[in-house]
Amino acid sequence: MIRRSDEKTIDVKKMFGGAGEAVMHRILNGPDEMYGKGRVFSHVHLAPGCEVGWHVHNGDGETYYILRGRGLYNDNGTPVEVGPGDVTFVDSGEGHALLNTGEEELEAIALILYK
C-alpha cells in the first residue's frame, strides 16, 4: 500500500478541552491498519497557543515525537519544555497535555498503542 500525501485523512478538532484546535494528518487509519495493536498514528499540527488538553490514558499509552516547534508538555502533572527531537510517553493510568508555547507551528508524531 502507498498512501499519497493528498490521500491522507485529516481531522481538525478541539482536543480534550484544550485551547484552539489540533490538525491531525492520519499516517495509518486506526486499529485495522495497526493490526489491532493501537488506535492512533498521526502527524499532529498545533498552531501557536493551541493545545491537546489534559487527559488520562486507560488501557493504552501515547508517545509524542516532537518534529518542529516548542511546547510545554504536562507530564502527569509536571510541566516540561519540549522541542525538536524530544520524545514523550504517557502510560496507561497516567495523564498528559501538550501546549504550543512557541511562535511557529508545533509538529509531532503521535502514536497510541494498546497496553
Explain briefly what this protein structure is:
The protein is mostly beta strands. It is 3% helix and 56% strand. The longest helix is centred in the first third of the chain and has 4 residues, at 30-33.
What topology does this entry show?
Elements lengths: L9 E4 L8 E7 L1 H4 L4 E9 L4 E6 L3 E9 L2 E5 L2 E5 L4 E4 L4 E6 L5 E9 L1
Antiparallel strand pairs: 1-2, 2-3, 3-10, 4-9, 5-8, 5-10, 6-7, 6-9
What is the H-and-E element order? EEHEEEEEEEE
Structural class: mainly beta
Estimate the helix proportion, in percent: under 10%
CATH class: Mainly Beta
Largest sheet, order of strands side by side? 1-2-3-10-5-8
Note the gap between the termini: 27 Å
Describe this structure in words.
- With 115 residues, the protein is mainly β.
- The protein has a single domain (8-114), classed as Jelly Rolls.
- 3% of the residues lie in helices and 56% in strands.
- It has one helix at residues 30-33; strands at 10-13, 22-28, 38-46, 51-56, 60-68, 71-75, 78-82, 87-90, 95-100, 106-114.
- A six-stranded antiparallel beta sheet has the order 1-2-3-10-5-8.
- A hairpin with a 2-residue loop joins strand 6 and strand 7 (78-82).
- The longest helix is centred in the N-terminal third of the chain and has 4 residues, at 30-33.
Kindly list the characteristics that best describe this protein:
single chain; 115 residues; mainly beta; Jelly Rolls; 6-stranded antiparallel β-sheet; 4-stranded antiparallel β-sheet; 1 helix; globular
